[in-house]
TrEMBL record:
GO cellular component, one term: membrane
Protein name as it appears in the record: Lipid-A-disaccharide synthase
Originating species: Atribacter laminatus
One GO BP annotation of this record: lipid A biosynthetic process
GO MF annotations in UniProt: lipid-A-disaccharide synthase activity; phospholipid binding
Keywords of this entry: Glycosyltransferase, Lipid A biosynthesis, Lipid biosynthesis, Lipid metabolism, Transferase
Coiled-coil positions: none
The keyword Cytoplasm is annotated on this UniProt entry: no
Chemical reaction(s) catalysed: a lipid X + a UDP-2-N,3-O-bis[(3R)-3-hydroxyacyl]-alpha-D-glucosamine = a lipid A disaccharide + UDP + H(+)
Gene name as annotated: lpxB_1
Functional description taken from the UniProt entry: Condensation of UDP-2,3-diacylglucosamine and 2,3-diacylglucosamine-1-phosphate to form lipid A disaccharide, a precursor of lipid A, a phosphorylated glycolipid that anchors the lipopolysaccharide to the outer membrane of the cell.
Amino acid sequence: MITVNGPGELYYWALTLMNSIIASKLPIQIWIFLTPCQFSTGYEQKVIQENHSIAKVFLPSETKQICWGKKPLPFPRQGLILFLGGDIYNAVLLKKRSGYPLWVYGSHLRWPKYVDLYLARFLRDYEQYQFPQKKFVGDLLYSYVIQKKYPTEQENRFFCHGEPRILFLPGSRLFAYDYLIPFYKKIARLLLPIFPKSSSVVGFPEHYSTKDVPADDWGELEMPFYFGVTSHLMNQADVAIAIPGSSNLELFYRKKKALIILPLEANSQNIPLTGIPEFIGKIPGIGPIIKKKIIYSMNSQKKWVSLPNILMNREIFPELRGKVCPEDVVRKIENMIHDSDFDYEIPEDEFPTTADSVLTQLIQENFYDKREKSL
């Protein structure tokens, strides 16, 4: 039983793990519980609806009813709950309902007294949490990058004009598109006179389509939109422009040049927060003003917002945050394209590529081996 809340966790974590489980031929039945979460996109079901390896899928409303005992659900005699995202309390409630052990994968360990095994995604988290039952497994996203190999003929069909090949990544949050897409268009227009033979494309998650993209007049600017082929685009791109998110790590693992931008000036009212700050932001009149101040204060306190920079504790990807204008981005991109010294090493001990196989082996050892001993 896997609890998860967003397309990124589903696509990069859950499905990557499932591919490993299927390859190992474990006789396992997989249930997916989509959890209620303010950060979910509403497209989570679409990501998994065609995957025949998943026995059951529970929508957020169903998960909530099951967790709180309002909808009965017969649980098999033996099982395991694997938390991959969302509010961990839902996984705790499922543990109470089912009696199954709870494994938590990720960077934050909450409700520790209910957790049977903590699976650290990053070495720093493994070292940080003083928890008796823990194991460092690595990033399932890195396993996905290793799994996802493309034939050469598929790698040369997206950037149609010339070089440099510039990739724009707006992320998976629809609330940001109304601002980001026109912003990206301005950047592309300014870059064209500097690099007249360049090719620019925009990469969207596979669960979106053109109807989700704000209508805008692109004029003579040829900038194709692609859906569900972001990894292909990353492989082929010379440089990427992205907002903070899981795409930053994939770019890091693929050793691509990237500029991370976080424009806050015109978009702060739509940025979701948690708890009291989000509640304050909804107060009519003064609420959005206070929320904007909170966001700027939070931003000023952070040395980095891009996860590769945070994990490596140095600048892997340059960041532009706060009041960001297209001209700033263009100057930075121009310097990055001409910079031939961009390189870094990914420490294998901190970033193993085998998270999927390690986790699959743990499932086998801690579930099936125990069952055999009890027979």
